[in-house]
Amino acid sequence: MTARAPSGDLDAFREQVRRWCRENIPADWRTTQTGASDAEFVRFQQDWFQRLRVAGYAVPHWPAAWGGGMPVDRQIVLYQELAAHDAPRLVLAFVGIHHAAATLLAAGTEAQRRVHLPAILDGEIWAQGFSEPGAGSDLAALRTAARRDGDHWVVTGQKVWVSGARFADRCLLLARTDPHAPPRRGISYFLLDMRSPGVEVRPIRQATGESHFCEVFLDRVRVPDGDLIGAPNEGWQIAQRTLGAERGLTMLELAERLGNAGLRRLVELACRPTPAGRAVDDPVVADRLARLDIEITGLRALCRDIVERHEAGTAGPADASVVKLYYSELLQRATDFGAELAGPAGHTALAAPRSGSWESGAWVLDFVGSWEWTIPGGTSEIQRTIIAERGLGLPREQARHGAGPSGRAATGGPRP
Question: How far apart are CA 338 and CA 347, in angstroms?
Fold first, then answer.
């Protein structure tokens, strides 16, 4: 467990981060990123990542040898202040600094770490290729196949809901390498070069108008044996570590953003003068704002508690599912209320900054986008099953495919 710094040290660090935020967060980023082209979006994201990297704030959760090593209590302060100052989010770097890094550190070879971790720090963009048509929340049902051919693997199949794939340089890829093994034991984990011949990316236009998710088609793609993570047929176990990297501090950051910019925008919306008077003067509106404030306060406390217990080695087996379920459904309630407060005029606000979070103030888009959170990374139904079986010790449902809780595994590409 990391020793807790004296409060004076944390106070000094908080002031340091505040000063850095005032000097480095682009004041007009929300304006410039609204309607930004793909090229402008990528350029802005990579520039913002490098600003954070120079300050030591980009990968604080990584080991010190790779540019991290920040104590957990300081990481909490860092995310609190970035949220309070409405900093842009690391949208394109998310999979690389969390999922790819966690995978490499947990199961990669030293040679793989030396190649890919510095590349991530230099701005290499990663995607996650887990879900497939017919194998979204059921990882054990995936059909993308890889067969060995000398010192390469030949991969053929299709992935779907791959976040940011059209910008990605690399992809975390799961493929079936032993069709005769039990479903969980015949999957291998690869690091796919997205520029390889045979890789085709097709963006999926979403209800919000953006194309964050993509389909990826793989036609006899050759993957070097050196890009296999772990041993053949051990991909299931490695994937569980990858999926777990999305929780903890990443959820704490999102909770802090919901509690800062999100709640602040709701209050501002309720307090604006209208011909019918301020909405906040309606007791029903005031009560709903108060309830959301209480719920968000609880979420922030829950996230901090889970992070601290994880660091102490006392985290529970269902903690990640609890916080993911709580956040995703609370986000829906908050954005739904924002769309209701905004009224008919709010339905014409159909543009949001590309480097922001889900509480941009374009409330209809925010509400539609919030529903993504109850699907990727394991649906709400699966999270409840995990909480029941792993957290509460209730009897397991009859397994299908020999997979995880109720035969399912929480998959689905994350929407960072």
Answer: 11
